Amino acid sequence: MLQIQFFSLIRMLLKRDAAEVAWTAGDTVQSVLQKTQQQIATPFLHKLVDEQGTPHAGTIILVNRKNILHLQGLQTPVADGDVLACFPPGAGG
Length: 93
Fold this sequence. Notes:
19% helix; 2 helices; globular; alpha+beta; five-stranded mixed β-sheet
């Protein structure tokens, strides 16, 4: 199983702080996010990535506390037991 943690506006939108998704060999961050969206009725994935599947500027996605920007982006492979943390872009002033 993989744990997906939600923070900030996504947490408020979904009214939950985490979800669990079954791991399959060959899964990547992108496929896990898509699986998670299929399990959750409330749309949230558009808050993290655009229509082309590119993370929005300011989006932070971590795999076991490592930013995917320093790994292989959304194509970063994941393994059973990994923890993904999803932070949507922030705004403020």
